[in-house]
Amino acid sequence: MHHFFLSFDQKPLAKTLILSKSKYPEQYHQISKVLKLKAGEQITLLNNSREKFVYEINQINLDKKEIYLRLQKTENESDSSFHINLFIGIPKKDKLEFIVEKCSELGIDEISPIITQRTVKNQTKTERLLKISAEAVEQSHGFYLPKINEAIDLRNFNLKLSGLNLIFHTQENLETNDLKQLLNTLDTNETINVFVGPEGGFSPDDLKILNKLENPKFIKLGERILKTETAAIAISALLKYHL
């Protein structure tokens, strides 16, 4: 069943809706022109909440350029109660867009770009990232967008983060923790803050700052050196699977 964001304000959707070309041009075009759906078929509309709204198409009036919908049922999310916030060192080129796309598909709750000592690109286009995220959530049949924060310099970082702080690194002589063991001790509804560095990883100065977080846990993902985008997606998938 095809999924579409109708709004992002989390307000409940009505029992009957009219999708007009003038008010909802993208949705109207996708349903009537691209997918060529017919009366009697169903679609799912999203409002960026933990609910989905399943509608049946009653009529598509091409003259008035309107689609008439009637609510059939709502579905509630049964996903993990943990809140995962990915703090990602901004990578080069458009790799952040790729990370946002894939982590939105996986159901990460929050994405926070950070500027580190080895960051080359220190600007992000939040509006474009939100558009990419919305398309990924629709495609993956998710419920809501991750919150995408503006980029912040690690030197100005709030070190009093609540929850479990997991810092993934590639350093040889640094104490490491067992990820599985840490996750097994988590309480329900806890926040998990995941830190992944840019190309080249976190510098020694970055790690000194991160070590000042409340109860930091340093993690190494084996001997292979992963690209930033690979590490971010792999770690996100591991956490979603385990939790």
Describe the structure.
The chain has 243 residues and is α/β, with parallel strands linked by helices. It folds into 2 domains: 2-76, Beta Barrel (Ribosomal Protein L25, Chain P), CATH 2.40.240; 83-242, SPOUT methyltransferase, trefoil knot domain (Alpha/beta knot), CATH 3.40.1280.10. It has 6 helices and 12 strands. Helix 2 (95-106) runs parallel beside helix 6. The longest helix is centred in the middle third of the chain and has 15 residues, at 126-140.
- Output the CATH topology of the largest domain: Alpha/beta knot
Structural class by secondary-structure content = alpha/beta
End-to-end span in angstroms? 26 Å
Whole-number mean pLDDT: 92
User: How many structural domains?
Assistant: 2
Please give the share of residues in helix. 25-40%
Number of extended strands:
12
Number of DSSP helical runs = 6
Biggest sheet details: 7 strands, parallel
Shape: elongated
- What's the CATH class label of the largest domain? Alpha Beta
Rg on CA atoms, Å: 21 Å
List the helices and strands in order: EEHEEEEHEHEEEHEHEH
Supply the CATH architecture of the largest domain.
3-Layer(aba) Sandwich
**CATH superfamily heading of the largest domain:** SPOUT methyltransferase, trefoil knot domain
